# Entry
Amino acid sequence: MRSRLQLAHLPFVKNFDQFDFGFQPSIDERQIRELRTLRFIHEASNVIFLGP
# Structure
């Protein structure tokens, strides 16, 4: 993962612990934290991410 991040030449590397949910109040922090557990994979559920 580290080498892929380096190859991507992203200006910043961030993780969920650094995300400011207060800056984007439309994002449900509880739901994001639940998705981070990857439980949906074990339950064979689908997840769809939509964005601008």
